[in-house]
Design brief:
Strand order of the largest sheet: 1-2
Distance between the termini: 39 Å
Helix content: over 70%
Shape: globular
Radius of gyration: 21 Å
Number of strands: 2
Largest sheet: 2 strands, antiparallel
Structural class: mainly alpha
Order of helices and strands: HHHHEEHHHHHHHHHHH
Strand content: under 5%
Length: 315
């Protein structure tokens, strides 16, 4: 039971962190059709700004200020960057955000250096919430789950139960009609992009001290976030949530399994032998191939269901 419950809890926490980051990317794509490659860079900025702010004004104030800083940066990117490249098509937007990611990464290295910064969990939440089979479950992880759940509920209510959400969705499919009704469509898109960057910044504040705040954090987490969005379905918030949990569980359980397919297929491997390529592949421990599993899952879903689990757009 211990082998199952502890990875289950850790996988759920990691999956919710992935959702916090991927939800902003999903929101931007579903409303604007822009696949923002710089999204993980905004997540990294949120973590670093929260680190500086937490030393000056405390973690709780940083929890409010840092996402707003990321939202302001996102609004600037949309107004002075994406809006000017939009008429050149989605390829130009993709290349713009791709280059912007490297600018952000190098900028972080210039400002904060190449080494990790000591961004710590706030003292108020730095204690074990409960103990399960000899392993402590930190209170901060429960706080992460609370924030992620509140984020999911808030986004869902915003898009389906408010006038602002209806205007945002209508601006994507019928921009001319929305404009004729007196709404500023470019301003709506700026608001959406800034909102997505706000969610990325909030994920950075919450996840920066859960993991490690370093210049490589965006490059290491960014590809997994895109796997989450593609696997769940581009533009689907529900698919994003489901795929985040699934991929979080898969990665967490995989790294805790020391066995291999050779242990499961003993007689077959004995017949094949381990001195050839097939035998060597089957003998690789699951923990070593764990990081590759999300990408294999993405390839599989694209082969049999190009729209993803719950997607509404072709990938």
């Amino acid at each position: 039971m211990e082998i199952v419950l502890n990875p289950l809890l850790n996988g759920f926490v990691y999956g919710m962190l992935l959702f916090m980051l991927a939800s902003g990317l999903t929101l931007i794509f579903s409303m604007m059709g822009v696949l923002n490659f710089a999204h993980a860079g905004i997540y990294m900025i949120g973590a670093y700004v929260a680190f500086d702010m937490s030393r000056l004004i405390g973690f709780w104030a940083a929890l409010i200020v840092a996402p707003l800083v990321c939202a302001a940066i996102g609004a600037g990117i949309e107004v002075w960057g994406l809006r000017r490249t939009h008429h050149n098509g989605h390829i130009a937007e993709l290349l713009f955000t791709f280059g912007l990611f490297f600018i952000i990464e190098r900028g972080v290295q210039m400002v904060w250096g190449m080494l990790p910064v000591p961004y710590r969990v706030p003292a108020l939440l730095d204690f074990p919430l409960f103990r399960l089979y000899g392993v402590d479950f930190p209170a901060y992880r429960a706080f992460m789950l609370l924030i992620a759940g509140g984020m999911l509920l808030a986004i869902r209510l915003l898009l389906t139960r408010t006038r602002v959400g209806l205007i945002i969705q209508a601006s994507l499919t019928h921009p001319q009609m929305v404009s004729s009704l007196g709404h500023n469509v470019p301003r709506v898109f700026t608001l959406v992009f800034a909102g997505g960057c706000y969610l990325a910044g909030l994920a950075g504040v919450i996840g920066g001290n859960y993991q490690v705040t370093e210049p490589a954090m965006a490059a290491s987490l960014g590809p997994i976030v895109f796997v989450v969005v593609v696997f769940g379905g581009l533009g689907s918030l529900s698919g994003c949530f489901v795929s985040s949990i699934v991929i979080g569980m898969v990665q967490t359980f995989a790294v805790s399994i020391d066995g291999s397919l050779a242990d499961l297929l003993g007689p077959i491997v004995a017949w094949i032998g381990t001195d050839n390529l097939a035998g060597e592949i089957l003998s690789i421990p699951v923990s070593r191939v764990g990081p590759l599993l999300p990408y294999a899952m993405m390839v599989g879903i694209l082969m049999f269901r190009p729209r993803g689990l719950m997607g509404t757009r072709d990938t």
